[in-house]
Design goal:
mainly alpha
């Protein structure tokens, strides 16, 4: 970003511009992060409708007008939070992987990451329920997001079926819908009683029932480790034998 200087410029020439010092950008980014963290707490605890910008601003130690300098409205702040959550998810699940089973395995592991981010899980769960109302500012976001996720998860199940990995009789789209419903339902149970369930393991267990050889990777890794250990032992024995021959 640049700013036009207040000095008068000659007629017919473009106004001079000065760049903001790099430190100002860093400070602005830190402030935005602090605001998002505070909004996460407020919206998670009170819900989006009950949570106020004033309360968010107070937690950051600024005025509501100062907060609006960074986020022009309450709905803009909400969308920034949701986009941040999506970025974290996309960094851990690649639905474009040719191996659909690997993509589904990563999806199940996403629940383990989410368990370390309880505030985000609570916010998402609260907002998804509130946003069923068409008047909610995040309504369209959740409608579109569920459509996209259903499409992506269905594609992963379809690639698993094409590879002969999907159990007979399992429909990829219905499996995708059930998988998403299971993830969301587990989050509610986990928020109410964290010790009641291991979300990631519950998802892995469901996928084991849907996909042939779901744990094949872990078995192959164990066999590879055993082979490597045997090779190392054999190499060590050969070295010891060679040393003995040399000494003789």
């Amino acid at each position: 970003m640049t700013e036009t200087t207040a000095a008068q410029t000659k007629a017919g020439t473009a106004p001079t511009r000065t760049r903001k010092p790099r430190g100002e950008y860093a400070k602005s980014a830190e402030t935005r992060t602090a605001i998002l963290d505070a909004a996460l707490e407020v919206f998670s605890q009170s819900g989006y409708r009950a949570g106020s910008l004033r309360e968010v601003a107070e937690r950051v130690g600024m005025s509501e007008a100062g907060l609006l300098h960074h986020f022009r409205s309450k709905s803009a702040l909400l969308m920034a939070l949701l986009e941040h959550r999506d970025e974290l998810s996309r960094a851990r699940v690649d639905f474009d992987l040719p191996d659909g089973v690997e993509a589904l395995r990563a999806l199940a592991e996403l629940a383990r990451f989410n368990a370390a981010q309880p505030g985000i899980v609570e916010l998402y769960t609260t907002l998804s329920a509130e946003a069923t109302a068409p008047s909610h500012p995040a309504h369209d976001y959740f409608v579109n997001r569920y459509n996209e996720v259903r499409t992506s998860v269905t594609g992963s199940f379809e690639r698993a079926a094409a590879a002969g990995r999907l159990v007979d009789g399992v429909d990829p789209r219905r499996a995708a819908v059930a998988m998403i419903a299971l993830m969301d339902g587990l989050q509610v149970q986990w928020l109410l009683a964290p010790d009641s369930t291991d979300m990631a393991e519950a998802l892995h267990e469901t996928l084991r029932a849907l996909i042939r050889g779901y744990d094949l990777v872990s078995i192959e890794n164990a066999l590879d480790a055993q082979a490597a250990e045997a090779a190392a032992i054999e190499a060590g024995s050969e070295s010891a034998s060679e040393r003995s021959e040399e000494q003789a």
